[in-house]
Amino acid sequence: MSKGFVPPPYPYDRLDVFAAYGRAMEGGLVDLSIGTPCDPPLAAVVAALSNSNTERGYPASIGSDALRRAAIDWMKRRFGVEVPAPDVAACIGSKEFVATTPHWLRLRTPDRDTVLYPAVAYPTYEMGATLANCRAIPVPMRIDGTMDLDAINADDAARALMLWVNSPSNPTGHLDDLGAAVAWGRAHAVPVFSDECYAEFTWNTSPKSALQHSLEGVVAVHSLSKRSNLAGVRVGFYAGDHDLVDYLKEVRKHVGMMVPGPAQSAGVAALGDDAHVAEQRDRYLRRLENVRAVVGKWSGLDIAMPAGGFYLWFDAQDGWAFAERLAREAGTLVSPGDFYGAGGANNVRIAVVQPDEKIGLMATRLGISL
Fold first, then answer.
1. What is the pLDDT of residue 11?
2. How far apart are CA 199 and CA 30, in angstroms?
3. What are 4-56's pLDDT values in tens digits?
4. What is the pLDDT of residues 220-255, one digit of tens each?
5. CA–CA gap between residue 79 and residue 243 (Å, rounded)
6. Whole-angstrom Cα distance, residue 250 to residue 198?
7. What is the pairing mode between strands 192-195 and 347-351?
8. Structural domains in the chain?
9. According to the model, what pLDDT value does residue 285 have?
10. What are the φ and ψ backbone dihedral angles of 163, each rounded to 5 degrees?
């Protein structure tokens, strides 16, 4: 009898053996592997969660009027983009949207079966294609971190359901050419889905959105997990091309994809406040600089600052060997680069998502002063 789909090991489960080194040390593990926020959310967000009076009834799958209006206003402030209210809808954070959208699109366009995504990338782009029984085709990366769209062969383009772009990139921190991706998608009649959950943490230029190149054939997805330290609340939204958003809204309604009512109220409070994001930017930038200095001095490697995001990404020759050594000597967990595609096997990703005192603990264990 043929065997069906068997889920692969979750990437971070493979790191448990290294985590044990840190747990055995005084002060415990310094976990810089998963990009999970550690800083407190805005007080108004906590108040909204507690006092929304929305917990009894079913929430709107597309999001409340207030949440969608808050998203529209934020996109106008941040990107200068006008998005009509019908072309915005809520999602349960961005990961479920990334993982499920290929399936919904395959139902809509059954003669197409290919998902294109960056070759060094967040693993859920590939997994979403796999779960939809689609071909997952990585697009090669140029040395500047942009996708080499010219390398996509004609057959893959003709069969493509969608092209994912992620800028700033997880894991590399590079900024992709969103205009080039949108132009390629329109030229080949391929919808472009732009994962912009790190847009607020763009260091050398203003944040960018694919929607700045007009909404036609483009859907951008955003999350409050990183921006507002709300990974546990699961609030995101998607916006863009009218026909694509309208279709996804209707499918997701039937599936019961609903952000809980209190979480939607929290999202309104978070999207309406930019000051807490500016404070978070300062925290992450300081941590990037500190971790870069400590790990660079300890390892002897020249670690570059990212153009965006809160990850350090660098060539360590052997990502697993580097991760094991840092775990043994500093009780610190980082991610080997092959989690993000075969092209990252030599690399390491460090997420600067621990409090300053934890980063200081790592430095102390390595005998380095901050």
1. 79
2. 26
3. 888 888 878 889 999 999 999 999 999 999 999 999 999 999 999 999 999 99
4. 999 999 999 999 999 999 999 999 999 999 999 999
5. 22
6. 27
7. unpaired
8. 11-31+275-365 (3.90.1150.10), 43-271 (3.40.640.10)
9. 98
10. -120, 120
Neighbours of 226 (CB within 10 A): 25
Peptide bond into 168 cis (omega under 30): yes
Would the CA dihedral through 149, 97, 92, 81 be positive or negative?
positive
CA dist 73 → 55, 77, 164 (Å): 25, 6, 25
Alpha helices in the chain (DSSP H): 16-23, 43-51, 65-79, 95-108, 124-131, 154-159, 178-187, 224-227, 242-255, 261-271, 275-299, 319-330, 356-365
To the nearest 10°, report the CA torsion of 126, 131, 135, 137.
-10
pLDDT tens by residue, 183-202: 999 999 999 999 999 999 99
**pLDDT tens-digit map of 56-113:** 999 999 999 999 999 999 999 999 999 999 999 999 999 999 999 999 999 999 999 9
Q: Coil, strand, or helix at residue 314?
A: strand
Query: pLDDT value at position 5?
Result: 87
pLDDT at 4: 85
Task: Give the neighbor-by-neighbor strand order of the sheet with 311-315.
Answer: 311-315, 347-351, 335-336
Q: Indicate the residue type of 36.
A: T
The Cα–Cα gap between 81 and 182 comes to 15
Mean pLDDT of the chain: 96
Distance in angstroms (rounded) separating the CA atoms of residues 215 and 195: 14
Partner residues linked to 239 by β-bridges: 88, 220
Q: Which among 8, 264, 247 has a CA at the least distance from the CA of 124?
A: 8
**Arithmetic mean of pLDDT, 289-311:** 97
Identify whether the C-beta of residue 116 lies closer than 8 Å to the C-beta of residue 160: yes
User: Is pTM, for the whole model, over 0.70?
Assistant: yes
Identity of the amino acid at 84: P
